[in-house]
Design brief:
147 residues, mainly alpha
């Protein structure tokens, strides 16, 4: 699966990335010892947290990032007491709300073959005509470039 002939050969590069990712942070911490926030960057933790995120489209990462930055910078600086009391509750509510709505939509709509409106955002092809083309070298398919 992870060999050259498998479907995930590029995943092997992440062993090297995981090995080298902490080095720039360590170098920056050595170069700028007065900036204590650099020492707080934990690349193994960042990489491990990213691996726990489900495989979704890039808009999900952007929205998670915006919500996280908003609550952990803006709300934390302006409303510390509210942040201390309610942030973890809000996080649990958002997570459980998504799970609850997924179950509710499944049982109320999809079990009756109702899948909602048809619009471009529901398509899974990313609107790229080359997305269905083979990328292995030497395979010839009509309408696709040869790699």
């Amino acid at each position: 699966m992870f060999t050259e002939d498998g479907i995930y050969p590029g995943m092997n590069w992440f062993f090297l990335i995981g090995l080298l990712a902490p080095v720039p942070v360590w170098l920056l911490a050595r170069k700028y010892p007065n900036h204590k926030w650099i020492e707080l960057i934990n690349m193994p933790l960042i990489i491990a947290a990213a691996s726990g995120i489900p495989p979704v489209r890039s808009i999900n990462y952007i929205s998670w990032g915006v919500v996280g930055i908003f609550f952990n910078f803006y709300v934390y600086k302006r409303f510390k007491s509210w942040w201390a009391r309610h942030t973890y509750i809000l996080s649990a509510a958002l997570d459980s709300g998504i799970a609850f709505m997924g179950v509710l939509l499944y049982f109320s709509l999809q079990t009756y073959d109702i899948f909602g409106p048809t619009w471009w955002g529901l398509e899974g092809d990313d609107h790229c005509p080359l997305a269905k083309c083979p990328t292995a070298p030497g395979i010839v398919t009509k309408g696709c470039p040869i790699f």
